[in-house]
Write a structure and sequence with these properties.
By secondary structure, this protein is an alpha/beta fold. The protein folds into 2 domains: 1-75, no CATH class; 76-131, no CATH class. Helix content is 26%, strand content 38%. The chain has 3 helices and 5 strands; from the N terminus they run E-E-E-E-E-H-H-H. It has helices at residues 78-86, 91-103, 112-123; strands spanning 8-17, 21-30, 36-45, 51-60, 66-75. The chain has a 3-stranded parallel sheet, with helices on one face. The protein has a two-stranded parallel ribbon with strand order 2-4. The longest helix has 13 residues, at 91-103. The chain is elongated and about 55 Å long.
């Protein structure tokens, strides 16, 4: 909720599904004049099972709010994996590299415990097309 005149906000979320169901809901409410906000909800499908539902929601309650959103859900482009494999990576390493880049785990302010969990998950990640 944006309650102060001229305040700004940016929310960037990244989700992955390896077969599970993910609902990525983001909501920003601009209640006062001069609010500027951007909401981004992106998802990466790593399996033919499961789903990702991205729901960006903006509520501008004043005529002088500048608010935007974007949402995208998709799969890794096979050409990206092939490119990295042509340079010596295994398919699993290429996929993990792309996923790591998508998640951008070097986020400023990310708690160390969460960063370690993300790194551990990615390091043990095995991409299996038949999931």
């Amino acid at each position: 909720m944006l309650n102060a005149d001229g305040c700004r906000a940016e929310s960037i979320t990244r989700t992955i599904s390896t077969g599970g169901e993910v609902i990525n809901r983001g909501c920003m409410i601009g209640k006062v004049e001069g609010v500027r906000a951007h909401l981004e909800c992106d998802g990466l499908m790593l399996s033919n099972k499961g789903y990702i539902l991205a729901i960006p929601e903006l509520d501008a309650q004043t005529g002088n709010a500048e608010m935007s959103h974007e949402a995208a859900v998709g799969r890794i482009n096979p050409e990206e994996i092939e490119y990295l494999m042509a340079r010596g990576m295994s398919e699993d390493d290429a996929t993990a590299t792309i996923v790591r880049g998508f998640l951008n785990v070097n986020i400023e302010g990310l708690p160390d415990s969460l960063a370690k969990k993300i790194h551990t998950t990615l390091d043990s990640f095995k991409y299996n097309k038949g999931m």
